Amino acid sequence: MNKHLPSQEEAVDLNKIIKRILKEKLPYASGLFHEYRGKYLADDSLSDVDVLLLCLHIGGEYKQAYEIEYELAKDIFVNLGRKKENFRKAVYSSRKKGYIDKKDKKLIILVKGVKRLEKILGQLHKVPVFIIKSGEHFTAIKKFERFLLEEIEDEEIWLCDPYLAPSTLFPFTIMKGRIRKINILTSNIQEIEKFKNYKKRLEKETGIKVEVKINRKIHDRYIIAGEKCWWIGTSLKDLGNKDTVIKEVSEVWHSLKQLFIERWNEGETFG
Questions:
Q1: Which residues pair with 162 in a beta bridge?
Q2: Which pLDDT score, from 0 to 100, does residue 1 have?
Q3: Which end of the chain lies in a sparser environment, N or C, as judged by fewer CB atoms within 10 Å?
Q4: At 261, which CATH number?
Q5: What is the chain's mean pLDDT, rounded?
């Protein structure tokens, strides 16, 4: 039995189809794909199972159908940069999870698969918000540590916090092996000698370099890591003492980074 192998012309057409559907039907999903030399490659953060579900969604938009041909789904899978030999495994895993079914050489996405697909696409619209309530003294640090583990992906952190204390440094121990440096811009440091001691211990025990500069002009609190940034409702030393909201505002990361660097260059090196 002859298997469908797309010709070069068909492959080009499929690339065009994928491009059109992503731009017209899924413009908000651009973060899941990367354009390279005329092709769209699925982000590495997506599992093969997730990519398969996206393939069925793209194929469904193209065919305007509920059921998608097995071979078409495979062609899209490969066009999105995944290995051909992994397609069969992805189908098996998806069926086992109850995401899809296979019938008469066609793949059908099930309700559970639709919910998973909605979660994949829905993540692009959600702005991560972390809330730490006043009085949560025992859980405040844990919540902030969870924020760091879930959101920080870069090896260097830029923290702007007007008021520092030794306790400011506590949560960052969780980032051992994940980051290499923390740049802290502040206007006031409480318990200076104790802070110096904690800073040295943090650097020795985690291998994370901590550099601090003082600039009296700063008033806002925020964290920058890579091309992402977050507003922080209160100083880190007050976590659990005051209501604190941490909200992603990555659309202004570049402006905040420029401001940080400007204030950093004006600042006085601590220690």
A1: none
A2: 39
A3: N
A4: 3.30.870.30
A5: 87
